[in-house]
Amino acid sequence: MNGAARAAATLALLATGGCVTGNYGHVSIDEPIADERLGPLVPGRATLADCLAALGAPNRVFEYAVGSDGASGMALLWSWRDQAGWGLDVSSGDDSIPGSVSFDAVTAELPGYMLWFGPDLVLQRARRGLVGELVPGRLRPSPSDG
Amino acid sequence: MIPRTLAVLSLALLAGACAFARQDTNEPLDAAVVQTFKPGTTTARDVVEKLGAPTEVVQLGKRTAYRYDATTQKSTVLFLLLVNFGNQDARSDRLWVFFDDKDVLTHFGASYGTHRTQYAMPWEDVHEAADNQSRDANRPGVGK
What we know:
The structure holds 2 protein chains of 2 kinds.
Chain A: H1 3-16, E1 20-29, H2 48-55, E2 60-64, E3 73-79, E4 81-90, E5 101-104, E6 111-117, E7 123-130, H3 131-134
Antiparallel strand pairs in A: 1-4, 2-3, 3-6, 4-5, 6-7
Chain B: H1 2-14, E1 16-25, H2 31-34, H3 44-51, E2 56-60, E3 63-80, E4 83-99, E5 105-111, H4 129-137
């Protein structure tokens, strides 16, 4: 048995024992939004109604730019996930032996669009990015903050 | 020896199983009901009477926004000895209704996706426009 055959046989043995498993996975959540759909939505002109008609319902809505009179704008977030990737699971196959290793190329970062509207509900700005970068921090303190 | 090893490996690759799973969260939204909402006329009470309790309520200064949603997720896994193939497709129906300080509807936005969810293998495109259109056509209030 030459080296290649020995390596293949070893890999097959490991796989048969559940030690090494390759994975190819695809995760799709909601419909991706193409950049072209935002083309007609010009800041300073497009209204909230225009944006809802063009993009449908957002995933999240946030309070934005609250004035002293209580008037507020809002920020709307659309996000989706469409990722595929290879992964590899390596485990001992024995619960008494620690050392299960998993590698997954599908990351948790989601792309999205955020649109900000002023109190007049006219689009102020739009930005594409990762959800973690786009979503604002808490705007109102929770009761536990004192 | 190498051809025999390859043959065994090929057989091992072919031996396996498959699994399908479906998970639904909330009832799909009724698009025909949503189409009856009229900004300037419909009130928060009207919306709640027709759709029930919202999933989320957001305060926007003097305004409020209610979110209604439903999600369908379909998963497919093909188990082989050396490699597994998995696909997960999740899509939602979403509705946001926006009210002024008098609880009168000012805007609403709706997206319908639960009926587009597919069982598929990971190399398949589950977002083909023609596929979406044919599924939309079979859902009342969504297809053109």
